[in-house]
Specification:
Layout: H1 5-30, H2 32-65
Helix pairs in contact: 1-2
Length: about 70
């Protein structure tokens, strides 16, 4: 599982980039509510990207274990 750490690191870097830009824009537009919305958006993005990566890792593991490979 540790060999997939680089894939997950990319996800965190994407979320970091979004979390630097999005709050600045939303706070200027919406004030405190912009901070709340930007936090929610970044956490939702992180959740979605991690779930997608988890499914890709599981598919790779299953494909590697299958001796008849499809």
């Amino acid at each position: 599982m540790l060999r997939h750490a680089g894939d997950v690191t990319k996800i965190y870097l994407i979320c970091f980039a979004v979390s630097v830009v999005l709050p600045v824009i939303l706070i200027k537009l919406l004030g405190l509510m912009g901070a709340v919305v930007s936090y929610l958006a970044v956490m939702a993005l992180l959740l979605v990207l991690l779930i997608i990566e988890y499914t890709h890792i599981r598919q790779r593991i299953e494909r590697d274990r299958n001796p008849y490979g499809a």
